[in-house]
Amino acid sequence: MGDEIETNIGNQKICRIMKSINGGSIFQYVKFSRNCFGENLPYDDVYMTKSHPLSLGYLSTEKINNGEKDESQSDKVFVHIEAFRLIDKLYGIELVEIEDTGNYNLIFDKHCSINVCNLDVVTHHPVGNNVFSNPKLKKNEFTDYKNACKKNDKPFYLNYENLIKYKPNTMSLKAFLAECFIFDKTKKFKFVSIDKNDNIFYKFFNDV
User: Cβ(80)–Cβ(56) under 8 Å?
Assistant: First the structure.
C-alpha cells in the first residue's frame, strides 16, 4: 500500500488492495482480447470479472441528473458499464473459463479509474453506499482523510442498449466503443449529457 498509481484524476496512493477468493480453481472472466477495440486497445489481453465496471466518463452530476446538481454526491461521478454487458458485442470480447484462485481490486482516497492496457477501468468506491454491503475504507486506511471522498456512492450504470443510443450515426460501432473505453481523456468520447432514466439503478436508489 502507499504506492502511487496514475488515475483519471492524477496520481493517487493505493489505500487498500482487495483480494476476492474464488470458490474453485476454475473461474469465469470476460476476456478483452488484444486490439478488440482497435490498434493497441487494449495492448494486451485483459481479463475482468463479469461485474467489474469500465468507465464511460467522469461527469458532473448535472450532466447525469437532467441539469440539476445532486448535493448528496461528489461534484463529478463515473458513468459505468459492467464488463459482461459487452460480451460478443465485438470480435474478441468473450466469456472464458480459466484456472484462477482470486482476483484483485484497488481502493484509493477518491473514486477513480486506472489505465489497464489503455482501457479505462473503474476502481472500488472508498465509501460505498447504504444499499449494497460493499467493502469500504476505515478512517485509518485513508492516506489523506481530510481531502478524501466522503459522500456515498450512488451508482450510475448503463446497460448496452442504453449506451448505444448515444452513438452518433456517423460513427461505426467499433469506433464509438473504442472512444468510450479508452483511458486517454483527450481521445475519450464526450457525452454532452446522459438521461438519468438510462441509469439502470436510478429507480432503485430513488425508491429506497
Answer: yes
Domain ranges of the chain: 4-207
Q: Which of 40, 49, 186 is nearest to 119 (CA)?
A: 40
Cα(57)–Cα(120) distance, integer angstroms? 9
pLDDT tens sequence across 101-143: 778 889 999 999 999 999 999 999 999 876 666 788 999 999 9
Q: Which residues contact 92 (CB under 8 A, 6 or more apart)?
A: 31, 32, 33, 34, 35, 36
Which cell goes with 49?
470479472
Q: For residue 3, how many C-alpha atoms fall within 13 Å in the half-sphere facing its CB?
A: 6
Residue among 161, 186, 185, 166 at smallest CA distance from 176: 166
What contacts 202, CB < 8 A, 6 or more positions away?
Answer: 156, 196
pTM: 0.93
The cell 486497445 sits on which residue? 41
Residues whose CB falls within 8 Å of the CB of residue 49, separated by 6 or more in sequence, listed in order = 20, 29, 30, 83, 103
